[in-house]
Amino acid sequence: MEARTDAFSGFPTVLGKVTQPDRVSSLVKLLLAQPVTSPTKATWTSPVPELQLIFRLNDGTLTVKELYVGDCELSQGIPVTQEFFSRVEAAFTGAS
Amino acid sequence: MNLGLHPVAGQRTLSYHGADWRQNVPPGFGGQNVIFLVAPSYQQPITLSVAALEPSGGLQADWPAEVLLPADTPSQIGSLAPGQAGYTPIGVTADGWRMYSHGVVIRLDRPGCYVINLTGPGLAERITFWATLQTVTPTPTPTGPKPTPKPPTEWMPFVRMLGRSYLAAGWGGTNPPLSLDPSFAGRQVGTVLWNVMDPSTDLSYASRDGSSAILAAGTPVYALKGYREDFRLLAETDYGWRVFETDGLNGAKTIDDALDIGGRWCRWKQGQTLSLAFRLFSGR
Question: Where are chain B's structural domains?
Fold first, then answer.
């Protein structure tokens, strides 16, 4: 993992990568299956994202989504539960 | 709150806080720096005290004063000097006070903060309030060129189309801007009608289709080939052709519904770019 300070948020971050196909697949499936039930404009209680996912799509484009535990402005990212975040974090931590 | 007195440059103004006071200064008591205390029963003696406070808040002095309100002079307006027989002076900080049927008028001529108490059998309860008399400093007239007004609102780089709001992908600098080939453009879904950064644009237009904070009026907005229009759009910005992604759930029940990337992320192969990366924030 690469420790750095994110230029956007100013917070220290750790940049990681997933290198195993099976783990990538399971991670993406885990994320895409995540229910989203929050209102469209929730109260922003977590201004610092917990995790930022960077998808490189098969046409060369990127989509970047940030995960927030609890509520957040949906224009900034996706609100997830602590349980879901822990699962994603564990999956990344276990990636080689 | 004050007794109808208005701050006038170079003159004094009076404000106070408390209970059981009235703004109706009796006729003949016009002027500035006047407090009119209403006594519920003028047939009973009350005790009036006026205390001046130091600017720092410390109590400077306290002058209790027995004030006997005349019973049979409902329309009498007395002009009583401190120390006058029958009345006890209330202190030098209130250099003028008068009787008026149901109450007492105090005129304050020295800037300061005062505590005024009324007690006695003529009152149902003790009345305490604060009065502040201050000198208003004239506001200097600004000279020189007028400063350039700062835009009142900072906008995210959005465009609103199809009843939804879309944000420029990669906004915020976490990833380098990605300019696509215009051949990615699908059907034209709309045209930008106004830019909310334009001072002449009513800000209420931001919630209407056709508004944008990054695209100029007249800019065509296209679907991005291969993606749902409620997820991604494409438009030419000053920074190249940029993807705009929805910033809301729009009824999606899962992230898959919202992002429309299922089956589009690259499967990892040896020697190829990784399909998924993450940035873990630790600043919380």
Answer: 12-135, 158-250
CA-nearest residue of chain A to B175? A64
- Between A and B, how many CB-CB pairs are < 8 A? 166
Helix axes of A21-32 and A82-94: crossing angle, nearest 10 degrees: 170
**Type of residue at B278:** F
pTM value is 0.53
ipTM: 0.74
Beta bridge partners of A54: A64, B277
Domain spanning B12-135: CATH 1.10.287? no
Q: Which residue of A has its CA nearest to B179?
A: A61
Find the domain containing A64 and state its range. Answer: 2-94
| Residue B178 main-chain phi, psi, to 5 deg | -115, 115
* Residue B129 near residue B21, CB atoms below 8 Å: yes
User: What is the least distance, in Å, from the CA of A27 to any CA of chain B?
Assistant: 9
Do residues B15 and B132 lie in contact, with contact meaning Cβ atoms separated by under 8 Å?
Answer: yes
